[in-house]
Each structure stands twice: as structure tokens, then as C-alpha cells.
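Our example copied in:
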Amino acid sequence: MQYCLMADDVKLGEDVRIYAFVNLYGCEIGDRTKVGTFVEVQKGARIGKDCKISSHTFICEGVTIEDRVFVGHNVTFTNDKYPRSTNPDGSMQTEADWVCEPTLVKEGCSIGSGVTILCGVTIGKNAIIGCGAVVTKDVPDNAVVAGVPARFMRSV
């Protein structure tokens, strides 16, 4: 784990592989999961067993990734439906000023490179998200979706 920034509150399973230039804090990562270079996993995020998180991916607070999920390169999760820098009075927002919207990625999914997943969605079991898609709503189990916004293409 050379050049990995890992806080004391990170919970790692057995045989987790973490590559260089990764930031981990307040998260959980399950057994045998691989985390690629230049990945950030924020507090409260949970990643299951036997997952592969490819390089340049951002997994924010509120994201749960179940077991056996593939996350391609440069995937971005969000957790705030209405992000703002400041409050109406001009003061800087703090954690107390916004609502973290959870996202759930169910077991066996594959998320292609360059995908953006908006908060508050559930991606069903074994679903496949095509490269570059923007996921704005729930994805059913065993569905293949692609496009901007992501649309149902077929079943697996």
C-alpha cells in the first residue's frame, strides 16, 4: 500500500489489494477486493467482497456496493441532489446543511468506465451499465442500460 492515504477508521477485510495514490477514510472494504490507483472512498461508504474498483474512481459517503461488483475506470458517484457551496445567507455550507442521499449497487453488477451515478438510485443485481452512461434512476435486476440519461437496452 505504498503512497496510500488510509485513516485509522478504515475497516479492511482479508486479502484486500490497494494500489498507489488511494485515499480511504471512514469506509469499509470487504475480503479480496481490489482498489485501483487514484481512487477515493469516503467515510460511510461500504464496498463488499470480491469487488474490483478501477483507477480514478470516486465513491462518496452514502454509497453501498455489494459483493462481486466491477466498477470501471473513472466512475463517479454523487450524494447530494442539490449541492451548494453556501447557504442563502452567504455562509459556507457544512455537513449540517445538506442531506446525504444513499445509493445502492447490488451484487454482481458491472459498471463501465466513465459512468456517473446520481444519488438516491438502486442498481439491481447483475445489471450492466454501459460506458459513459449517466444513471439518473433505478436500474432493474439483470438489465443492461446505456446512454445519457441511461436507458434500458435489454436484459442480461
